[in-house]
Amino acid sequence: MSARLAVLVALLAVAGTGCRQDMHDQPKYKPYRQSEFFADGRAMRPFVAGTVARGTLRDATPFNTGKSGDDFVTEIPVAVTAELLERGRGEFQVFCSPCHGRTGMGDGVIVQRGFKRPTSYHVDRLRQMPIGYLFDVITNGYGAMADYAAQVPIEDRWAIVAYVRTLQLSQYAPETDVPADRRAELEASLQTGGEDEESGEHH
User: Higher-confidence residue: 102 or 193?
Assistant: First the structure.
């Protein structure tokens, strides 16, 4: 029995090795290889129309599109916090400031190198645009600006547009936005500034 068992084990081992080798060498197509089976001669097959990569399916919500129906949203669909604005500032400096400049004036480093100057964020047209419009431009691009959907996650796009609004407000904030207990201080500083200009003094 022992001899027969030993022979059986040996045969099974040989058979198993052969099976493993067959599986290792089985016919298969590798990426970018030629194929005689498909009419276009390619082993790689094109994606089925409408295919969406796992984890990238987005519902048509204001958060994902910046729109409510066909209209751009007028309010940011996330909580605007100091942390969000700080995140937006960092992302803006990385992705936007090379063209738009650190203050959004359109004087980024590429402009200094001779490239076309983008529109300042501080013109009336962009200050009056709904916030969803800015999100849409980052997502889909506009004119000479490429889209940044692949580089900037949705959450960070909202952080960026929130920060852009702060840049716009830094130049054109209405007086009503100034706390009542600080308005006297503001008016005094404006008067002092006017007097300095008249005297030719600059600070």
Answer: 102
Judge contact between 101 and 108, C-beta under 8 A: yes
CATH number at residue 165: 1.10.760.10
Q: What would the pLDDT profile of 80-94 be if each residue is shown by its tens digit?
A: 999 999 999 999 999
Find out whether 139 and 63 touch, Cβ atoms under 8 Å: no
183 in a domain, yes or no?
A: no
Q: At what angle do helices 131-140 and 154-172 cross, to 10 degrees?
A: 130
pLDDT tens-digit map of 99-142: 999 999 999 999 999 999 999 999 999 999 999 999 999 999 99
Contact 138, 152 (CB under 8 A): yes
First to last CA, the chain: 105
The whole domain housing 104 covers 92-171
- Spatial CA neighbour of 101 closest among 80, 87, 115, 82: 115
Handedness of CA 27, 31, 35, 40 (dihedral sign): positive
Token pair 């992302």 in the structure block, residue? 91
According to DSSP, residue 76 is labeled -
